[in-house]
Amino acid sequence: MTALPGETPGTVGTDTPEAAEPPAATDAEGPAHAEAPGADESAGAAEPAAGGSGDAETAAEDPAAGDAPAGEAPAGDAPAGEASAGEEGDAPVAAALSEAQAELAAQRELREKIAQRKAEKEGPVAAGTKLSGTAADLLAAVRAVESGEKAGAEFYDSPAAAPAPRRPAPAPAGQPPRPAPAQAAPVDRTASPEAVDAVRAVLTEGGAPEALAAPATGTLGEQAAELLRADPWQLLAVPGVRPEQADGFARALLGAACGPDDGRRTAALVGWLLERAALQGHTALDAEAVRAALAERAVSDPEEAVRNAVEEGVALVFQEGTDPTEPDAAYEEDGEAPAEAETGTEAPEPVQVLLGLDRYALAEESLADGLARLMNACEKGADWAEAAAAAPSPSAAELIRTAATAGLVAHSGGEAARAEPAALIAAARGLGLRALGAAHSADGRRRLAEAVGAPDAAVTLAGLLSGTEGPGRDEDGALALDLLVVLDAPQLDVEGAAVLVEALADGVRLVLSGDPGVLGSAGAGRVFADVLAARACPQVVSRTPDPGPIGELVSGIGIGELTQVEAPGKEVVIVPVRDAGEAVHRTVQLVADSVPRAFSIPAGDTQVITVGHGGAAGTRVLNEALKQRLNPGPGRFGGFDPGDRVIHVPAPGRAVPGVVRSADAEGLHLECGGVPVVVPQERVESAVRHGWALSAHQAAGMRWPAAVVVLPGDAAAGLSRPWVYTAFGRGERHLSVVHGVDQALPHAVAQVPAQERTTRLRALLEAVPTPDAAS
After folding, report:
1. Chain CA centroid to CA 296, Å
2. ∠ CA 475-477-482 to the nearest 5 degrees?
3. Where is the composition biased (Basic and acidic residues) (predicted)?
């Protein structure tokens, strides 16, 4: 067994009496028991979960973001994500042809836009004039939310007060004004009791659980009953429903009229595959992978099935690796396959054909256009030379000088490097600019505000976008800012990033700052990684190392090395265990006794982090054991008692730590970072979990005085370098590792890097014209 830094195998410091015997030569638990972060323990159930609570936890708290592929649940077992492209299926079947024509027209507009971008490659970019076609549709939806016409709850749990209708930001002299898209019609997402009853009747007739009536109506709309009768496979759009369940439902309703190659079935399967991929972080999938997955589900002609899905508007098709102005190499607009190349002609470069949902295509197009707008609309303005000279470090000075001349900057570094964007914010505010920093979590906001020395200099990103934090909007409806620094940038998903960039007016400087080694966003996309890979803007790499034994350990993990470090103050302690039961026992001892006694860190400031929610030592089991020791009680408030540590998930991808204070008819009362929060009774089951133990995805962007990372034997398959890097970096003063995976840990650090996510943003950024100053 490889000894971890700070201890030899089988020993702990004298201040931690929980010393365990060396683990047995072979683990009692095997990788077959591992559960990946976000894998739903009820995935193999015979019927969908009644209330979808498990699925909400999977999608919202800890989706299988492609950074931990080794522990991913088998294909077909993961629940489908929240339907997003189901609007195409909301109309009656008779309207399918017109919808398909509309989708093809949208794709033609997209190709025309790409051709126009290529033609303008050598010319200047008119700031704010690049939104058209499908990207303009997203802009219309965003502005509908900003104007209050569309519910803000579509993006966040608590909609902010609607700002004034946004007017186009003024264009620089000599450039055409930015087009103002038509406002989207308001959407009523409250399902009527009559619609739910109608869906319940259809579900009962098809042998599906009645508990799916409300989720199905919420997903498919008021006409859900009629839609399900005409196309039973639309049930796949409901979170948690699997293909075999939808097949059984369809057979019960349609009888012999349906089969495995039914066009309705194959189109729904394509949408389900793309939604499932989005839960793993992809915004698109290789068409060949989609065809292979369809073949595994008894589709006899996957090629025709994919073509049908494209024609029906379920998916959009894109190609990479060839001239984007040429007709689609895989699917022509008339649905015919391209003719064979003429004999004797030079073979073209391999073309990757991608399929994607429209929501992510819209977001990536809008984000690429918005970033290009910011890059090309920046003006030098104030003199930053004196501020750079007064910077606290060379890296901070470099960041200040770079931000002075660029509209978009990518800054990367570890935990100590967060002082550099803080110095930039302070310098900009000293020059009279409206500068602000946005962090992923309330803890990150607090640490940034302390580093800047101004409480109003930092907000959470969610609070900024919802309008509950920050400076508000200017007279044009844009955020009233001159400089915005986004920390924890790897946590940005593509949809959130698109909304953020659209809210920035021309001339605003945007700095994306983060640690490339941590786990990626909970939502689809890899915005920060794509911006770095595209090299479309200046990049500043911090030269400030993380201090102390924990910093040294984490830095080594970041380059694939698990090395021993000197830890004279027991900053890093290893607790070997033989099995999952012992891991739970040792974890409770560490949190309740050893760490408080040895380091004067109370149990409430120690965070337990483990690989998954299920399993013999997952978050559920650990939270139950820790509650019994630290805050025993009957759980009279829906399983919670006053004083319980919890994690509140107000929206997918957001995990907010809190403490239960009370409960009444209004709901469960929490205190989250000093802010009172009331969770309605109907949302407690899906939006609140005990929070003594978290997954690494949930813990990303936050730090605690002490962290206990639990690695039982059944977690080996879920480990990867980004997971270990993220988990080990959550402790500020102390890190305990409850270690039962033997050689799986050094193997994961050295040989299991982050799984690549399939996205289109990098290619879109590489195609946009950039200023000469960009490197």
Report:
1. 28
2. 80
3. 106-123
